[in-house]
């Protein structure tokens, strides 16, 4: 079985989808290393950036000097050139985003992480806004299987796109291979991990944090770690004056090593998103031994369960109260950490890799 994975989202900054496809590719390569009849190939295309040959141990590489935006436009709008022209023949072609790679012979899989771009296209990047809303239903229904990370997203894919439930496969992401920190950091920074996009609802959190500083100036710093799209920082309001000056830190994109260090120094993770198809930072925080405040929207309640605090994301007072409890109630924090560590142990990248390998084989058997 020849498996091709579109690795382009992980080529540069490994944000949410990039992290997903990197770790999934690693797990697939590991699971198949003893099977000489199965190969995992990573596909990349870029005019400027090259894919390191050892980026995933055991995986083969196809790296083409083709501008990614140009290729995406051709693939999404003209379904050309077929994958065989630029990457060779494969049995499986798996795209880690909602739109298919065109192929003459491969069984095709897509991963749909969320459908926020349908309800709120204004909250998305220009290329997503241009292509995804108009094409996603057609591509999802042409795919041999649609992969999702949560039951919440599975229900949306069925209801909004009309994909039959027997062609939707739920594969929750795995937890990082981290050891938990040796002890809680009760006075550490308040951490937000994720891009400063509208869906993350950070202006509301910053207002809640500002109110909290007004009552207790010794509140730990608020650290925002994630890519900053053009104009995103302005949506947070004035941050260079009291009480936010020197207390709110915007780091921009951080790599895996820095990300882990930020969790180690955090008193809590706050994720007040307006929608999430899974919530990888929550799982990372639980793995690291960091208590979580999360939104009541999307897939987050199912992921968090009784591990942390769930808050209506547009309620500034509730967000401030939740942060206050995390800072003051050490007994609750200790319990949340213990429950989080136990919950994170249920998420392993081997599980989705094995589920996918079975699905790949089933589809090929059906053909």
Q: What is the CATH architecture descriptor of the largest domain?
A: 3-Layer(aba) Sandwich
Kindly name the structural category. alpha/beta
Strand order of the largest sheet: 3-2-1-4-5-6-7
Shape summary: globular
How confident is the prediction overall: mean pLDDT? 96
Name of the CATH superfamily of the largest domain: Glycogen Phosphorylase B
Which stretches of 5+ consecutive residues score pLDDT under 50? none
Q: Report the span from N to C terminus.
A: 14 Å
Percent range for β-strand residues? 15-25%
Count every helix, treating DSSP H or I runs of 4 or more residues as helices. 13
Major sheet details: 7 strands, parallel
Q: What is the C-alpha radius of gyration, as a whole number of Å?
A: 21 Å
User: Any idea of the CATH class of the largest domain?
Assistant: Alpha Beta
Series of H and E elements:
EHEEHHEEHHEHEEHEEHEHEHEHHH
Q: The CATH topology of the largest domain is what?
A: Rossmann fold
Q: How many independent structural domains?
A: 2
The tally of beta strands, per DSSP, is 13
Query: What is the helix fraction of residues, given as a range?
Result: 40-55%
């Amino acid at each position: 079985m020849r498996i091709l994975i579109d690795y382009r989202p992980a080529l540069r900054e490994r944000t949410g989808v990039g992290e997903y496809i990197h770790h999934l590719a690693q797990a697939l390569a590991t699971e198949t290393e003893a099977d000489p009849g199965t190969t995992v190939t990573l596909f990349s295309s870029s005019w400027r950036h090259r894919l390191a040959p050892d980026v995933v141990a055991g995986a083969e590489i196809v790296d083409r000097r083709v501008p990614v935006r140009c290729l995406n436009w051709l693939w999404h709008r003209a379904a050309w050139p077929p994958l065989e022209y630029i990457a060779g023949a494969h049995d499986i072609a798996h795209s880690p985003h909602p739109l298919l790679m065109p192929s003459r012979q491969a069984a095709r899989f897509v991963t749909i992480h969320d459908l926020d771009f349908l309800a709120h296209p204004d909250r998305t990047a220009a290329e997503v806004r241009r292509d995804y809303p108009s094409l996603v239903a057609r591509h999802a229904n042409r795919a041999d299987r649609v992969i999702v990370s949560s039951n919440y997203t599975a229900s949306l894919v069925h209801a909004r796109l009309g994909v039959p439930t027997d062609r939707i496969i739920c594969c929750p992401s795995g937890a990082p291979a981290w050891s938990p920190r040796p002890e809680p950091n009760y006075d550490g920074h308040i951490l937000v991990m994720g891009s400063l996009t509208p869906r993350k609802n950070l202006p509301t959190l910053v207002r809640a944090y500002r109110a909290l500083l007004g009552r207790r100036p010794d509140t730990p710093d608020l650290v925002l770690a994630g890519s900053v799209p053009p104009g995103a920082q302005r949506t947070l309001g004035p941050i260079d004056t009291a009480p936010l000056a020197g207390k709110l830190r915007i780091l921009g994109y951080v790599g895996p090593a820095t990300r882990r260090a930020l969790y180690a120094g955090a008193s809590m993770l706050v994720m007040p998103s307006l929608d999430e198809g899974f919530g990888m930072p929550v799982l990372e925080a639980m793995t690291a031994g960091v208590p979580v405040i999360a939104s009541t929207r999307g897939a987050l309640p199912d992921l968090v369960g009784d591990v942390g605090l769930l808050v209506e994301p547009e309620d500034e007072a509730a967000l401030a109260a939740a942060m206050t409890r995390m800072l003051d109630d050490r007994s609750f924090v200790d319990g949340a950490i213990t429950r989080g560590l136990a919950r994170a142990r249920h998420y392993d990248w081997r599980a989705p890799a094995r589920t996918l390998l079975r699905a790949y084989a089933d589809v090929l058997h059906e053909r």
